[in-house]
Design brief:
The complex is a heterotrimer. By secondary structure, chain A is mostly helical. Chain A is flat and about 75 Å long. Chain A contains 15 helices and no strands. Chain A starts with a helix and ends in a 7-residue tail after the last helix. Chain B has 19 helices and 16 strands. Chain B has helices at about 5-35, 65-80, 90-100, 115-120, 130-135, 140-145, 145-150, 180-185, 190-205, 225-235, 265-275, 290-295, 310-320, 355-370, 370-380, 425-435, 455-470, 480-490, 495-510, and strands at about 50-55, 80-85, 110, 155, 160, 160-165, 170-175, 235-240, 245-250, 255-260, 305, 325-330, 345-350, 385-390, 395, 420. A 5-stranded mixed sheet of chain B has the order 2-1-3-13-6. A 3-stranded antiparallel sheet of chain B has the order 11-7-12, with helices on both faces. In chain B, strand 4 (about 155) and strand 5 (about 160) form a beta hairpin. The radius of gyration of chain B is 26 Å and the shape is globular. In chain C, helix 1 runs antiparallel to helix 14 (about 275-295), helix 8 runs antiparallel to helix 11 (about 210-225) and helix 13 packs antiparallel against helix 14 (about 275-295). In chain C, about 70% of the residues lie in helices and about 0% in strands. The termini of chain C are close together. The chains are: A mainly alpha, B alpha+beta, C mainly alpha. Chains A and C meet through helix 2, helix 5, helix 6, helix 7 and helix 9 of A and helix 1, helix 4, helix 5, helix 6 and helix 8 of C.
């Protein structure tokens, strides 16, 4: 009876399935087929054997990561930074989107939106260079200003404690324009009638934002947060590498899995090692998102990712 | 607008497909060219074997022009021609291994110890080159190449590359501002002590200038003065720039030790800290991403350490551009033993699945040892890209920049020409070194790190994280910092690494 | 059924100018202007630094660092960039073509996929969502992917630049989220009228999703515009080099060569303005997109979707 039902369903959904077909095929080819390469994490890759012919070496490729004594530290750093980024970035972007929509005039809004987008275009290499220009000990703009008003210089590049704040701020700055657009688009979709009704009931503008705008942005926020959670164990390599560089003094506070693995591989070009590290990140991310998605489903089935 | 949308979409889709199809068509043209020129063995002399070569570097503007002439000569002398593909400096690290992984079609490829020669060979990327192959195809090279060079290029006893043939000393020197030294009446800089005085004086008294600068931000695992102060000064040989293990040059037993665990190193740390505390270099030196030579030209840095070749060219450059600034090359270890560069600094290898090994080797033979072909490959067209000065020198022409900047160093050989503008003082230093080249039994020993890859990775990481800040004077308590470094190294497996290395050396020596 | 657009005014604007309401609106406006201005300044200053540095003499940058106003103007960096104008124009051409085609096709496919996934009456939507999402979690790495593209013979073709980026799970899911906020009543009535799924998508959903399409379209455009990675891996022919890769090569070449010189002992003298060049590259790469951005903004007008319900 089930078989019967299944084919009936296929017939019923045939147009929808056809519409899904291009994407399904696309990901099958470009994502699932190469996924077979995950086996490299367990192999000692050589050219003659290729991906499938190379000899297995069990968990050897994971040893460099776990025997280094740093595995916990970089994992912890990666997760904590990502959580901070998720929270700070989203709050800031929602605030910016709401204010842009509600509180400023049309031309100012257009100008501000364009300007806020500029950081997105600046590569991390350039951001790192600008940051160094601003913050370095000898001639950095910050220290020049401090000495001008008679204060002591601050050695930012050798003081780890500053860096979580710096990195969070810089990450928020860079993602601001890009992220607030999504919230802005979501806000434009909110039914005007609700606002009008609330106004008639005597709500002031803050109340309207709190009771209407924010709840209506929730679906978007949840989706974006869930999407970010899947990557919670992947560090933004470009940012960390270009901002922190190779200054070992800062590593305990700023090293993430991706930068750690990158540095380990400047000596040997073993493909298996980064594959193993990547698999580790994937498994952790998978566990996390399954939990998160499950939790969201309990709260509201439609708000979850799947 | 609404009614147009479907039409617009359809047009877009059609346009897309047609463009894609036309782009696709372009590909088959490319595929066709690859099959041309099969081995002309015994066939008509017309069809020369096309040998595909992969080099690292950006394609010079005039490369095609030069290649044409080069190919006509190659055709004459070896019945072969070259087709060259370039892997830019910007992305060769990514692309190089991929070309092997995808088994792409090429025959000759540039390789070097710093281009992961050892790794690539072990992974089966290169074809083994046997004595017979050399005998049959490389008469000139067989004569010209010293045995040491061949031995240094062996991996697990097998040869996988034709190394370059230029056993020069590439010790490091420092470049200093001679005018500043004179200004403060300092002693000539020719030793670590005089250099320290120079750095401290300049650093403290000249505002706005860094006495010493380095580009530590690039991730080097040793202080940029280490090769001078630690290795050259103590006559040690570091096995690999990524691990802190070395042996003494004149130690016949080849005993390996951890350089960080020596009195000399402790003393060096004090030396470095002293300089750092006295304004010898910037507090943020480890984060410095500026080009040090550019800094020096702009007057912001008063010295830096580098290979003598690079430094000599710097000297010549500044003499031209800012004659009022006086620079001097200072050899801080003038009386110490010198080592010749390992032959695997540059070389050519054969791609394992290549079917044109014979022709490839013939071509390499000529590139290194045939005067005409060598000159073309290395310097370009005579009279256009350079002016020959006698047999062994050349002088630059306005067109020189149009044929430079790529890895033709694989063809280095005694036929190399020196820039006529090469500063005499640098040449004098180099000549002095030649007479001091020290040969030692372990000269041809190459470490095979197959079994200790994890330890290599972790030890390297420890060096970067703990040794670098320590050496640049960023750690307040040197003793504690030093103790930490040693502990971390142990945790990273340096003992296992050392044991493996020692056993390989012992085996090597007992086989001699 | 027509979509009635309400006047494009902002919600919450007092319909009658009651004096009581002014104070809270005023407060919000002040907060808004201050907050946004601060953000805008933080965003624009670094950019001004870049513009200024791109026009500054290289030696001055080394001496003084980046300044807001160039101490010595020099267009050497731009000269270097445009030294081979034909090459540069070709690069622009490739990028524009790839971006335009990729965005159109990609946006269409993304929207279509998102539409199906948000259909609450589609029994398997969560299964398919998981199928798509899973691909963002696990990755086989560079080597298998490179081998795949290689075996499809996409090397050195526009295919390699366009196809791998056509679909992106992130965009599909965000688009799905936007689309699901469109009331179902609209599609319901269409179905009752006998319209097929594809027609509903094409003629109803797309027009109603303008802000979503504009947003995701913008993102896809930016992704294509900024991409240099695919060119790095798969393109070696000069004619097919997109802008970002062309620029990246120019800069990376000097860096990589310098390191190689240090490692190999070889010597090459080249005089290159790296710092100002980096800045000029940013300007050259960013400029066109920034100019196009204001055109996209007009889609962020509230009210386009809502009135339709009443229709």
């Amino acid at each position: 009876m089930n078989r019967h039902g299944f084919w009936n369903d296929v017939k019923k959904y045939r147009t929808l399935l056809l519409m899904l077909a291009p994407a399904v095929l696309f990901f099958l080819l470009f994502a699932y087929v190469p996924m077979a390469g995950i086996v490299l994490a367990f192999k000692n890759y050589n050219y003659s054997g290729g991906i499938f012919g190379s000899p297995w070496n069990g968990l050897d490729n994971f040893k460099f990561f776990f025997d280094s004594g740093n595995a916990w530290m970089v994992t912890r750093n990666t997760a904590l930074y990502n959580i901070a980024f998720i929270v700070v970035n989203n709050v800031l972007q929602v605030a910016a989107a709401i204010l842009l929509f509600e509180a400023v005039g049309k031309w100012f809004r257009k100008f501000a939106q364009s300007v806020m987008f500029l950081p997105y275009f600046i590569s991390w290499v350039v951001v790192g260079a600008i940051a160094y220009n601003l913050l370095n000990y000898d001639v950095g703009t910050l220290n020049v200003m401090l000495t001008a008003i008679g204060l002591e210089r601050i050695d930012i590049y050798n003081t780890p404690a500053y860096w979580p704040f710096i990195l969070v701020l810089v990450s928020a700055w860079k993602a601001l324009g890009y992220g607030s657009i999504m919230y802005l688009a979501a806000i434009t979709g909110i039914d005007n009638e609700m606002y009008e009704a609330a106004e008639i009931d005597g709500a002031n503008v803050f109340q309207r934002i709190w009771h209407i705008t924010l709840p209506n942005l929730m679906p978007t926020m949840i989706i974006l947060v869930l999407l970010a959670v899947g990557n919670i164990f992947r560090g933004d390599f470009g940012m960390f590498y270009n901002m922190v560089g190779n200054n070992g003094l800062l590593f305990s506070y700023t090293d993430v899995i991706d930068t750690f693995v990158f540095r380990s591989l400047t000596t040997s070009r073993e493909i298996g090692l980064p594959a193993a590290a990547g698999l580790y990140q994937s498994l952790l991310g998978f566990a996390t998102i399954m939990l998160a998605n499950y939790a969201v489903r309990k709260y509201d089935k439609d708000r979850a990712l799947f | 607008m609404k009614s147009f949308k479907p039409l617009l979409l359809m047009t877009a889709v059609v346009l897309t497909l047609s463009t894609l199809l036309s782009a696709c068509g372009g590909n088959t043209d490319n595929g066709g060219a690859a099959t041309e020129g099969s081995t002309g063995n015994g066939g008509a002399a017309q069809t020369a074997t096309k040998v595909k070569t992969v080099l690292i570097g950006g394609k010079p503007a005039d490369f095609d022009m030069v290649l044409e002439q080069l190919n006509s000569k190659l055709k004459e002398k070896a019945n072969a021609t070259m087709e060259v593909e370039f892997l830019d400096w910007a992305d060769w690290i990514q692309k190089y291994p991929l070309k092997f992984a995808a088994s792409e079609d090429f025959d000759i490829v540039y390789t070097a110890n710093w281009a992961f020669y050892n790794d690539q060979a072990l992974k089966g990327g290169f074809m083994e080159i046997t004595e017979d192959m050399i005998k049959a195809n490389m008469p000139l090279t067989q004569e010209a190449m010293p045995q040491v060079a061949w031995d240094q290029a062996k991996v697990n006893g097998k040869l996988y590359m034709i190394p370059n043939n230029r056993p020069e000393v590439i010790d490091k020197v420092v470049l200093i501002r001679e005018d500043l030294r004179k200004k403060y009446n300092l002693e000539p800089v020719n030793s670590p002590e005089t250099y320290a005085t120079y750095l401290k004086t300049i650093g403290t008294n000249e505002k706005g200038i860094n006495a010493f600068n380095a580009r530590a931000a690039d991730g080097w695992k040793v202080h940029e003065l280490d090769s001078i102060m630690l290795e050259q000064n103590n006559e040690w040989k570091l096995i690999d720039p990524n691990i802190p293990l070395a042996y003494k040059l004149d130690d016949a037993s080849g005993k390996i030790f951890n350089v960080y665990d020596t009195q000399e190193y402790k003393d060096l740390l004090v030396y470095y800290k002293d300089i750092a505390d006295n304004n010898g270099w910037s507090k943020n030196i480890v984060s410095n991403k500026n080009d040090v030579w550019q800094d020096m030209k702009a007057g912001k840095t008063a010295s830096y350490a580098q290979n003598i070749g690079t430094v000599a060219m710097n000297l010549a450059e500044l003499k031209r551009e800012q004659p009022e600034v006086e620079l001097k090359i200072a050899d801080l270890n003038p009386d110490k033993k010198k080592k010749a560069a390992i032959s695997t600094q540059n070389g050519f290898a054969l791609h394992a699945p290549s079917k044109k090994a014979d022709s490839s080797l013939k071509v390499i033979d000529l590139l290194q040892n045939d005067r005409e072909i060598h000159d073309l490959f290395m310097y370009g067209i005579s009279g256009v890209h350079y002016e020959p000065v006698g047999d062994d020198k050349f002088s630059a022409t306005p067109a020189t920049p149009n044929y430079t900047g790529f890895s033709n160093w694989a063809a280095n050989s005694p036929l190399n020409r020196v820039d006529a503008e090469y500063p005499a003082e640098a040449q004098a230093i180099s000549d002095g070194w030649e007479s001091k080249i020290y040969h030692f039994p372990l000269e041809t020993f190459v470490f095979n790190d197959e079994k200790v890859k994890n330890e290599m990775a972790n030890v390297g990481n420890v060096m970067l994280r703990y040794a670098i800040p320590l050496e640049y004077g960023l750690v307040k308590d040197i003793e504690k910092g030093h103790a930490d470094l040693l502990t971390q190294l142990k945790a990273a497996g340096v003992d296992k690494l050392q044991a493996e290395l020692q056993s390989q050396i012992d085996a090597f020596l007992s086989n001699k | 059924m027509s979509a009635i657009a309400t006047s494009g005014g902002k919600p919450g604007q007092p319909s009658a100018g009651t004096g009581i309401k002014h104070s809270d609106r005023l407060a919000l406006n002040i907060i808004g202007y201050v907050f946004i201005s601060v953000l805008a300044i933080l965003c624009i200053i670094p950019f001004l630094l870049i513009v200024s540095s791109s026009m500054t003499e290289e030696s001055k940058i080394i001496e003084d660092g980046f300044q807001l106003i160039p101490s010595e103007i020099s267009f050497h960096a731009y000269e270097m960039l445009f030294k081979y104008p034909a090459q540069m124009l070709k690069a622009y051409g490739v990028t524009i073509a790839v971006t335009a085609l990729g965005t159109l096709l990609g946006l269409f496919l993304t929207a279509m996929t998102a539409y199906v996934l948000q259909r609450k009456d589609f029994k398997w939507r969560n299964h398919f969502s998981f199928y798509f999402f899973f691909t963002t979690l696990f990755n086989g790495g560079l080597v298998p992917w490179y081998l795949l593209i290689n075996s499809l013979k996409m090397n050195d073709t526009l295919f390699a630049l366009i196809v791998p980026m056509l679909l992106n799970v992130f965009y599909i899911i965000v688009m799905k989220s936007f689309m699901s906020s469109i009331p179902e009543a609209i599609t319901e009535s269409a179905k009752i009228d006998g319209a097929g799924d594809f027609r509903i998508f094409l003629q109803l959903m797309l027009p109603l999703s303008k802000p979503a399409l504009a947003t995701i379209g913008l993102f896809i455009t930016l992704a294509y515009w900024n991409d240099w990675y695919h060119a790095l891996l798969f393109i070696s022919k000069d004619q097919l080099m997109p802008l970002q890769y062309y620029l990246y090569k120019m800069l990376g070449n000097m860096d990589g060569m310098r390191r190689a010189m240090i490692s190999s002992g070889a010597v090459v003298t080249m005089n290159i303005p790296t710092e100002s060049l980096k800045m000029a590259m940013t300007i050259v790469a960013t400029g066109p997109i920034l100019l196009a951005y204001p055109f996209v903004q007009r889609y962020f007008v509230q009210g386009l979707t809502i009135g339709a319900v009443k229709g």
